[in-house]
Design the sequence.
């Protein structure tokens, strides 16, 4: 169950970043209030809040030295894949190699606690 809470936290954090990106895509010409009260932005803020709650709960069970690298690195992978597959952003070969190193690093950091 602790791993599910950590996974929920990282997915909510990734969703928050994605929603903020989507909210900022068509925000040109909008006022500050209009930009930050749009549905994607408000949804992103909600996801950040829920991610904070889930992450805090996960920290009750995991050492920070495991929880933080797993959450941030895996969230980074989710964001890069979403950006590439859905937003059609370019991902260079160097970035792909970096993702492989991230996955390896996550495994090396967390393998004893699985």
Sequence:
């Amino acid at each position: 169950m602790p791993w599910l809470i950590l996974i929920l936290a990282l997915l909510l954090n990734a969703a928050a970043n994605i929603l903020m990106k989507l909210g900022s895509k068509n925000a040109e010409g909008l006022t500050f209030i209009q930009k930050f009260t749009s549905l994607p932005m408000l949804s992103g803020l909600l996801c950040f809040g829920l991610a904070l709650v889930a992450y805090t709960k996960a920290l009750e069970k995991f050492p920070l030295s495991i929880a933080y690298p797993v959450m941030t690195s895996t969230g980074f992978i989710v964001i890069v894949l979403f950006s590439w597959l859905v937003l059609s952003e370019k991902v260079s070969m160097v970035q792909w190699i970096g993702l492989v190193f991230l996955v390896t690093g996550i495994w090396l950091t967390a393998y004893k606690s699985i």
Notes: The chain is about 80% helix and 0% strand. The chain has one domain: 2-113. Helices lie at 2-25, 32-36, 39-59, 64-85, 93-110.
